[in-house]
Design goal:
Order of helices and strands: EEEHHEEHEHHEEEHHHHHEHEHHEE
CATH superfamily of the largest domain: ATPase, nucleotide binding domain
Low-confidence stretches: 389-398
Shape: globular
Strand content: 15-25%
Distance between the termini: 22 Å
Structural class: alpha/beta
Radius of gyration: 20 Å
Largest sheet: 8 strands, mixed
Mean pLDDT: 94
Number of domains: 2
Number of helices: 13
CATH topology of the largest domain: Nucleotidyltransferase, domain 5
Oligomer: single chain
Length: 398
């Protein structure tokens, strides 16, 4: 099958910027071949990010939601233009996971999910068709709509001795377990969400860069015990969460239950919380090895705490061909590619849906939609070849 050049774009729960990656993908027998072409991150304008963060915790009317949806869409359009450059000036499709602003979880079930970033702005800016709103179909089918990484992880790690855990540490941390009776995937708890919040409270910074604050502090066992008492950690999968739970109110209640905590000690304790909850999940899953990606790997203090607590060896995803910083953007590109070829982008064993589903809604580009014929079988593995000569685009150009 001829290749398809896809741009994957998203902004994670840390809301620190927009990740974009370009990739060539094609079906080859029982495999998807994915060749990364380049990736980058574009920071949100400071004022837009502040309004986004306020929308999570304060009343937000229809007018502000409209403005945010538009301005995020325009920011994603700028990122897509950059993605076209990464793709050598040509692409077939843009896949956008948008910006999650609310994930409605009630009694352990997801009732709805909201991602902003109007795809029409991307289509208008690039002339390319855009696949967006990727989570809600799985939610409508009874699933959690997250984490969607299970599809990529199950293909990518299909030939690894299992069970093996694929970990991603973004604002929320999630894991996929591959190589057991069936894939399992769920959100383990906070990744960087509480760390970023605490860094803002302590120093006014967006994040604890390089874990510098945490490195100066010591773990407070009393605070850690209060934080670990959160029921989410004990719920069976499938399960998902977000800043609706792991946000300012959660941290304020925990701090109110213990004597005053110094800033560095707070960061050290929250770093230990992220490491402990991820490691506990891996221990419960009896995995033999683990591969980690996401923004959290840039924090050496967090990575050291995770290695210390993990019951098994830990590798960076780069060692298996997927850049740790762009894995989620490449996942988004893969999800777009699967829908484009009539293939499901979910695993019901991972999300809890009633069955696999094609994901997303397509916005046409500069011309009519011309989808390829649906693939006749689902792929079983993901292959990431060594860099080769550039593969020409086959359909849409920009």
């Amino acid at each position: 099958m001829e290749s398809c050049r896809v741009l994957g774009i998203l902004s994670g729960t840390s809301m620190d910027g927009i990740d974009v990656a370009a990739a060539d993908l094609r079906l080859d027998g029982d495999a998807v071949e994915l060749r990364p072409l380049g990736d980058t991150e574009l920071p949100y304008p400071a004022e837009l990010r502040e309004r986004l963060l306020r929308a999570l915790s304060e009343p937000c009317g229809a007018a502000e939601l409209c403005r945010l949806d538009t301005e995020i869409g325009q920011a994603f359009a700028d990122a897509a233009r950059r993605g076209v450059e990464l793709a050598g000036g040509r692409a077939d499709l843009v896949a956008s996971l948008g910006q999650t602003v609310h994930h409605w979880v009630e009694d352990g079930a997801v009732r709805g999910t909201l991602q902003l970033g109007q795809p029409a702005w991307i289509a208008e800016a690039t002339g390319l068709p855009v696949l967006a709103d990727l989570r809600v179909r799985d939610v409508a089918a009874g699933g959690h709509g997250a984490p969607l990484a299970a599809v990529l992880d199950a293909l990518w790690l299909a030939d690894e001795p299992g069970p093996v855990a694929a970990l991603n540490i973004g604002g929320i941390a999630n894991l996929t377990v591959v190589g057991g009776d069936r894939p399992r995937a769920y959100d383990t708890g906070p990744g960087n969400a509480l760390l970023d919040l605490a860094a803002g409270m302590v120093s006014g910074a967006r994040a604890d860069v390089d874990g510098a604050l945490a490195a100066r502090g010591a773990v407070r066992p009393d605070l850690l015990a209060v934080l670990l008492d959160e029921p989410h950690y004990r719920r069976p999968p499938p399960k998902s969460t977000g800043k609706e739970l792991f946000g300012r109110d959660h941290l304020t209640r925990a701090l109110a239950a213990v004597p005053p905590v110094e800033g560095p000690d707070l960061l050290a304790t929250l770093t230990e919380l992220t490491a402990a909850t991820i490691a506990d999940a891996c221990r419960a899953e009896r995995v033999r090895s683990a591969v980690v990606s996401g923004g959290g790997v840039r924090n050496p203090v967090l990575l050291a705490a995770l290695r210390r607590r993990m019951p098994v060896p830990l590798r960076l995803s780069d060692e298996l061909g997927l850049p740790a910083g762009s894995k989620e953007a490449l996942l988004t590109a893969l999800l777009g590619f699967l829908t484009w070829h009539g293939l499901p982008g979910t695993d019901p064993d991972a999300t809890g849906a009633t069955g696999p589903r094609l994901l997303g809604a397509l916005t046409p580009g500069a011309g009519p939609l011309r989808l390829p014929a649906p693939a006749d079988r689902r792929p079983r593995r993901l292959r990431i070849p060594r860099p080769t000569k550039e593969v020409p685009c086959t359909q849409w150009t920009s």
